[in-house]
Amino acid sequence: MNPVTLLPFIVLIGAMFLMTRSAKKKQAAAAQMRNEMQPGTGVRTIGGMYATVKELHDDTVLLEIAPGVHAIYAKNAIGAVLDDAEYNRIVHGDDETGLDLDGTVVPDDASSLTEADTDEDASDDARIDLGKKADDAEPKDAESGKKSEGKDDGEADAK
Question: Which residues of 99-110 are buried (b: 16+ CB within 10 A; e: fewer)?
Answer without folding.
Answer: eeeeeeeeeeee
